[in-house]
Design brief:
By secondary structure, this protein is α/β, with parallel strands linked by helices. The chain has ten helices and ten strands. It has helices at about 35-40, 45-65, 85-105, 115-120, 175-185, 195-200, 225-235, 250-280, 295-300, 320-330; strands spanning about 5-10, 15-20, 25-35, 75-85, 110, 145-150, 155-160, 165-170, 285-290, 310. Bound molecules: 5'-O-[(R)-(carboxyoxy)(hydroxy)phosphoryl]adenosine and zinc ion. Zinc ion (ZN) binds near residues 117, 150 and 318.
Length: about 350
């Protein structure tokens, strides 16, 4: 009999639930996005997010069970992404997971959301989307360099095993996805901006504008994207006495800004990955998070001489299948949480 884990995700603005068999086979992955609620604010409003989670959580869990053709009584354990995230949002998922674990008398498993983004490369989708750039069927060779690039996180990890993960670098200001969203706002585009900039960049010239690439120290594995974002702002608005906004740019100029910004982000990410690979002696690279869906990044990664593992597109952005998948490994290690589990806004991994 396969081991069935129900995963729950409510760390930010997606309410999600999934049923995963034996840690890899995704039987269902239900996601309710709140994009429409936050769009007009060009970013996530925490209070609106937590209220929407309360409305969505039960229908999403029911839908995940229904799509997996599975009854609640058949679930072996409940995995919850309890850190990091928006505290009001986290509390909704944590409360639902505790209630289910208690009423069904099944184990509760606490999962770190960022760590789960890395694990997402192992998920086997219901369809046959490619999960690896090298050999779709082969699991990543460890130790690996892990990179999570999302709206809330930009961090590098030394991945010795899926449950032995050390933070080796992170952003000192904006996350890369956040920079994408802010640049999209500067360009007058809608939210979330990442996929739109990715799209426009295909028609732009990446060499049109030389935006800065912030590498910090010589051996630094940290990131900084705020200077790049400000540089885009100055380029679009003009310097003192030359105030304008994106409406004065032609479509081609906007495409060029998108392509040049994306090229700066990708150059920095690739450089940091190669530095990290050298420092930890990695045998592969594992990447997760919303920005890992980026087409420009994916094609730059395809040129590297090391196996690169990426999630199937459906598991790049926030989802609960990755929570259930990593929850399975923790379950097998007997790492169960007590019913007084806290929702924690910050990440589990401390810098060495
Ligand atoms: O992982 P995720 O769903 O949420 C967080 O944990 O933050 O990532 C969302 C982020 C947003 O900033 C969005 O703009 C970005 O991922 N994103 C992309 C693309 N698709 C989503 N950024 C660049 N290119 C994309 N194709
Ligand atoms: Zn995320």
């Amino acid at each position: 009999m396969p081991m069935l884990i129900l995963g729950i995700e409510s760390t930010c603005d997606e309410t999600a639930a999934a049923v995963v068999a034996d840690g890899v086979r995704v039987l269902s992955s239900t996601i309710t996005s709140q994009v429409q609620l936050h769009e007009k604010f060009r970013g996530v409003v925490p209070e609106i997010a937590s209220r929407a989670h309360i409305e969505n959580i039960l229908p999403v869990i029911n839908q995940a069970l229904e799509s997996a053709h599975c009854r609640l009584q058949e679930i072996d354990a409940f995995a919850i992404a309890h850190r990091p995230g928006l505290i009001g949002s986290l509390l909704v998922g944590v409360t639902a997971a505790k209630t289910l674990a208690w009423t069904c008398a099944k184990p509760l498993i606490a999962v770190d959301h960022v760590h789960a983004h890395l694990y997402s490369v192992n998920l086997q989708p219901a369809d046959d989307q490619q999960t690896s750039l090298v050999e779709p069927a082969s699991p990543p060779a460890l130790p690996a360099v892990g990179l999570v690039v999302s709206g809330g996180h930009t961090a590098l990890y030394h991945l010795k095993s899926w449950t032995d993960v050390t933070l080796i670098g992170s952003t000192i200001d904006d996350a890369v996805g956040e920079a994408y969203d802010k640049v999209a706002a500067i360009l007058g585009l809608s939210y979330p901006g990442g996929p739109i900039i990715d799209q426009l960049a295909q028609q732009g010239d990446p060499n049109a504008i030389r935006f800065p690439r912030s590498l910090l120290g010589r051996n630094s594995l940290d990131f900084s994207f705020s200077g790049l974002k400000t540089s885009v702002l100055y380029h679009v608005r003009g310097h003192k006495g030359r105030q304008r906004d994106a409406s004065s740019l032609s479509q081609q100029e906007i495409n060029n800004v998108a392509a040049s910004f994306q090229s700066a982000c990708i150059d920095v990410i690739i450089k940091k990955l190669l530095r990290a690979r050298k420092q930890v002696g990695a045998r592969s690279i594992v990447i997760g998070g919303g920005v890992s869906a980026n087409r420009g990044l994916r094609s730059a990664l395809a040129g590297l001489d090391i196996p690169v593992h990426l999630p199937a597109p459906a598991y790049c952005t926030d989802n609960a299948a990755m929570t259930a998948g990593l929850g399975y490994l923790l379950h097998n290690l007997g790492q169960h949480a007590a019913l007084d589990l806290d929702a924690i806004p910050f990440s589990q991994f401390a810098a060495p």
